[in-house]
Design a protein that fits this description.
By secondary structure, this protein is mainly beta. Among the domains are: 214 residues, no CATH class; 175 residues, no CATH class. Helices cover 4% and strands 55% of the residues. It has four helices and 48 strands. The protein has a 26-stranded antiparallel β-barrel. A hairpin with a 4-residue loop joins β40 and β41. The chain is elongated. The N terminus is likely disordered. It is found in: Cell outer membrane.
């Protein structure tokens, strides 16, 4: 019996598009026997192709059995036998193959009535269109309408790695489908780690929404979650509905959150998060977002009425109090050169985020910003106007730790560059500073509020050649104040001014030579550098302290004329810095293999100006400590040595050492070794030492002050044991007090169809004080599941891993 080829009217286009829509369905399983892997077009990876693959194979459509017709709307047909009944019905038997465009249907028998309105197929039929495979026992399809019914189906979405079954699949209208006793999974054939099962699923491809009744999630065939009714998206369009819950347990108790997403409009959405914490009570959080053509913003916040008191080191601190926070932002564009930003943030107390964003990836913000800003960026001028303030998140929070508000702050900067190396700059700022404190309990320099006008013209010249450079530079600081000390008695002027010039001459030479080491050609440089800086001693006792802090000494401070940050203090300086640097460059790539430097400053006068601004301090008892007196009167800075070494493509090291050669003691040192493997393995070994009082900007009473030498050991690693398994860990040790500051151990399993993160962590909370005695430990175990193609539950830990382990990039599920 020979085969014959014929053409007829186009067959229904329902099957390919309809079943593609069900691919977005959060899958489940139907009734009946599961097809074999081979029947699902499954091809296992073989040999080298299997390396690095999460899935053990892939779905591949076999070649078309019929060639494509010139007319994509035409129907190509082959069959073992074709018979016509008396009434005109056509019956195709045997190995029936039909192709129209990209869709190919195979069946054992096919009946087309005389009116050519329907098509009936039976006997292990299969439909493929390059994206989807559908197998069924029976099919009833309308050839001229969007109606079809398929019985006992199994389907595969090749690219999405999705497979599923349904007892019945119906097309009920254009882009509308219904599945009975259906389900799906993204696991490999034969692996039913998870699946979503539903008795009744409706899909609306036009709206991108699906619904399921009596849906349940099964893990290893064991039901773990049930929804009486479930609404889910079919594509990337946002849809209103419940999101996956979050559940964690730690030393503070149980934390459960159930988010609900509301798709308000194409440019607006909101998320509501009712949350129950066993040691605090019910917390209602939420977020509203909007995105418009020239502006965007969001409002987030949370509210808890009458705190149950919490647990751990801060138990009962806020018992019975309302706890809340709000953070609203808005930003937009006025013109192509001008933008604006608005923000308001606030919290009920300084430990809100310590208590409610605890865990492996908690919120680490230390302040809440309030801001209204507009700027302009011209070719020469940059303008900025803002009103800005911060709520500092500490509790207890002393008055002198409260930051000043800027109400407002106006900035105008410009620069000019000339062909002969001359350049000039103009920097200016006018700010009104305010804060709400008791003026009688803060240091006198911080008791005032008022305005500050700060003008800084700059002139300099830079001569530069490949063999060296020379740059003299002078900037004039003129600052004028109008102050109000409120109820604080003072002899200070309420209209002080200051004018002082900051001058420097910086110069360096560059010597080069060719060098061969270990069979590798290098270019070695030798770069001596000198920098002289002079800032005259200027009486600043009448000046307030709005935003200044004495800077920590470092390599960069060897070359800076500014001993203080901010504009309220200018430190007197008469010093010469000298250094010698050497770099090792690979000739073929120009990459820096080694950089080493050693430098020091020699002082020709004492540095009498401290944060009080007093130029007459010269006696030891006028300083807070002997250490601060020594820093002000020492003849030389610490010797600064630094090293960055790319030992191999995978190993690198860094070293810094600040050594006092007058007292023969180390003031600060750090050494670290880093390992980076192309496959993602990471190892960090670090040691840090810092002498007590090294940072002059941190005074006794500050939260960051430590009355001991700090010595810490930091070890962290991330090891990608297999393409599926990541192992991570960190240990931070306080050698001074022989205690652990942070311990973390975790495992991440990333399989073809699911992911799992399991993390144990124990850490020290400093209770927002400088005292070690009131520190307390917290600990927790955090678990997160991700069902690929469906979603996940639990806290996301990737950000915390990357912060704790430098160089690690968490695997994305």
């Amino acid at each position: 019996m020979g085969k014959r080829l014929s053409r007829t009217a186009p067959i229904s286009r329902m099957l390919g598009a309809g079943l593609l829509a069900s691919a977005s369905l959060s899958p489940a399983w139907g009734q009946g026997d599961e097809p074999t892997a081979e029947q699902l077009d499954w091809h296992p990876w073989e040999g080298a192709a299997a390396e690095g693959q999460l899935c053990r194979g892939r779905y591949v459509m076999p070649a078309y059995r019929l060639s494509a017709a010139p007319d994509p709307e035409a129907l190509s047909l082959e069959a073992d036998a074709l018979n016509y009944a008396t009434g005109g019905d056509a019956l195709l038997r045997g190995d029936v193959v039909l192709r129209r465009g990209d869709a190919q249907l195979e069946a054992q028998s096919l009946k087309i009535p005389a009116d050519r309105e329907q098509l009936y197929a039976e006997g292990k039929l299969s439909l493929r269109d390059g994206r989807v495979l559908v197998r069924a026992e029976r099919a009833d399809m309308a050839l001229s309408a969007d109606r079809a019914t398929l019985e006992d189906t199994a389907y595969v979405f090749y690219d999405q790695h999705i497979r599923g079954q349904a007892a019945q699949l119906k097309q009920t209208g254009e882009d509308r489908y219904r599945l009975r006793d259906a389900g799906f999974t993204t696991c490999d054939p034969g692996d039913n780690t998870w699946r979503l099962v539903s008795s009744d699923i409706k899909l609306n491809q036009a709206s991108g929404v699906g619904t399921a009744r009596h849906a349940r999630l099964e893990v290893k065939d064991v039901p773990v979650f049930y929804w009486p009714w479930l609404r889910f998206p079919l594509d990337d369009r946002r849809q209103t509905g419940f999101l996956w819950p979050s559940l964690s347990a730690s030393g503070d108790g149980i934390d459960y959150a159930q988010p609900f997403y509301w798709n308000i409009a194409p440019d607006q959405d909101a998320t509501f998060v009712p949350r129950w914490l066993s040691d605090h009570g019910w917390l209602l959080g939420g977020e509203y977002r909007y995105l418009r053509e020239a502006s965007a913003g969001q409002i987030e916040g949370a509210w808890l009425s009458s705190d149950d008191g919490g647990s751990g080191g801060g138990a009962n601190r806020y018992a019975g109090e309302d706890r809340w926070y709000i953070d609203a932002t808005h930003a937009g564009r006025l013109t192509s050169r001008s933008d604006y930003r608005l923000r308001y943030g606030g919290a009920s107390d300084g430990r809100y985020f310590d208590d409610f964003d605890r865990g492996i990836d908690g919120d680490s913000r230390v302040s809440m910003e309030r801001l209204a800003q507009v700027d302009y960026r011209g070719e020469r001028w940059q303008l900025d106007a803002r009103a800005q303030g911060f709520q500092r998140l500490e509790d207890p929070l002393a008055d002198n730790d409260k930051p000043f508000y800027r109400l407002p702050s106006l900035t105008a900067n410009a620069q000019w560059q000339f062909d002969n190396g001359l350049y000039s700059e103009w920097r200016s700022n006018a700010t009104y500073f305010w804060r709400d404190v008791d003026e009688t309990v803060v240091p006198e320099r911080e008791a005032a509020i008022g305005s500050r006008l700060h003008l800084t013209p700059v002139v300099g010249w830079r001569f530069e050649r490949p063999w060296g450079y020379l740059e003299p530079r002078t900037e004039l600081w003129h600052t004028a104040y109008t102050l109000d000390y409120g109820d604080r008695p003072t002899q200070r002027s309420d209209t002080p001014t200051r004018s002082v010039a900051l001058s420097s001459v910086d110069g360096g030479l560059v010597f080069e030579r060719e060098l061969a080491l270990g069979g590798q050609d290098y270019r070695q440089t030798l770069e001596p550098r000198l920098n002289y800086a002079y800032v005259p001693r200027t009486d600043q006792r009448d000046l307030p302290d709005f935003d200044s802090r004495e800077r920590t000494f470092s390599w960069d401070q060897l070359w800076s004329t500014r001993r203080f940050s901010g504009a309220d203090r200018v430190g007197d300086l008469n010093r010469l810095s000298y250094a010698l640097e050497s770099r090792l460059l690979e000739d073929d790539a120009g990459a820096e293999r080694l950089s080493a430097g050693v430098g020091q400053s020699v002082y020709f006068a004492d540095r009498r100006i401290d944060i009080d601004g007093d130029p007459d301090k010269s006696r030891r008892d006028e300083y807070l400590t002997e250490a601060r007196y020594y820093q002000a009167t020492r003849e030389r800075s610490p010797l600064v040595t630094r090293l960055d070494w790319q030992i191999t493509p995978r190993w690198s090291a860094g070293y810094e050492w600040l050594y006092d050669d007058q007292r023969n003691q180390t003031e600060r040192s750090s050494v670290e070794a880093r390992y980076r493997h192309p496959d993602g393995h990471v190892l960090n070994l670090g040691y840090r030492w810092e002498i007590q009082g090294f940072d002059p900007g941190v005074l006794p009473g500050d939260d960051a002050y430590r009355d001991y030498n700090r010595e810490e050991i930091d070890v962290s690693f991330a090891w990608k044991a297999t393409p599926r398994l990541d192992l991570i860990g960190r240990y931070l040790h306080d050698q001074t007090h022989q205690r652990s500051l942070d311990q973390l151990a975790g495992v991440q399993w990333n399989d073809c169809c699911y992911g799992l993160q399991l993390v144990w962590r124990e850490w020290v909370d400093d209770n927002d004080t400088a005292r070690v005695e009131d520190d307390f430990s917290d600990r927790g175990i955090f678990l997160r599941f991700v069902f690929k193609g469906l979603g996940g539950m639990g806290q996301h830990s990737g950000g915390a891993f990357e912060q704790a382990i430098p160089g690690y990039r968490a695997t994305q599920f």
